[in-house]
Amino acid sequence: MNITAMGTRLVALFLFSLMSQWALAHVSAENAWVRLLPPNMMTTAAYVTLTPSHDDRLVGARSDIATRVEIHESTMADGVMSMRPLEGVDMKDSVAVQLKPQGVHLMLIGLKRPLKEGEMIGIELELEQTGVQKIPFTVRKP
Ligand SMILES: [Cu+2]
């Protein structure tokens, strides 16, 4: 093998390893659900356990079902539960992050129609490293 052929192979190998790293970056989602509320409620919350394959950061979310989706954190102060928007949620390689009631959650604001128990809602998560990943959420009672 001459030097040029070897160089080409090395470049190809390098590119391949880069591409497979990109392809492998993903977040696995478990227990993804949306809180079923009375049909007149225009805002609800969504919860999911996310495990990233690499260090990543959740920076936003959106869904066809809602005007906008915000990342919120619930906090308890003096016996009163309140929530505030978060800019993002840091995620460590392979460490599960739980979005759950009374904690960090997704807020679906401005529902475009009433939700039905058992239906699936697609929510796109925007992740700094992985990009956009669409996850199916089940509508159910808490
Ligand atoms: Cu909220």
Task: Work out the helix count.
Answer: 1
Instruction: Kindly provide the name of the CATH class.
Output: Mainly Beta
Secondary structure category: alpha+beta
Largest sheet: 10 strands, mixed
- Tell me which CATH architecture applies here: Sandwich
Relevant CATH superfamily: PCu(A)C copper chaperone
State the total count of DSSP E strands. 10
What's the overall average pLDDT, rounded? 90
Low-pLDDT runs of 5+ residues are: none
Approximately how much beta-strand content do the residues carry?
A: over 45%
**Roughly how many Å is the radius of gyration?**
20 Å
What fold name stands as the CATH topology?
A: Immunoglobulin-like
Distinct ligands, ions and cofactors found in the model: copper (II) ion
Question: Cα distance, first to last residue?
Answer: 65 Å
Fraction of residues in H or I helices: 10-25%
Task: From the structure above, extract its key features.
single chain; 142 residues; Immunoglobulin-like; ten-stranded mixed sheet; 1 helix; 10 strands; 15% helix; binds copper (II) ion
Description:
The chain has 142 residues and is of the alpha+beta class. Strands 1, 2, 3, 4, 5, 6, 7, 8, 9 and 10 form a 10-stranded mixed β-sheet that branches. β1 (27-35) and β2 form a beta hairpin. The chain is elongated, with a radius of gyration of 20 Å. 15% of the residues lie in helices and 54% in strands. The protein binds copper (II) ion (CU). Copper (II) ion is lined by residues 45, 72, 83, 105, 107. Copper (II) ion (CU) binds at residues 45, 72, 83, 105, 107.
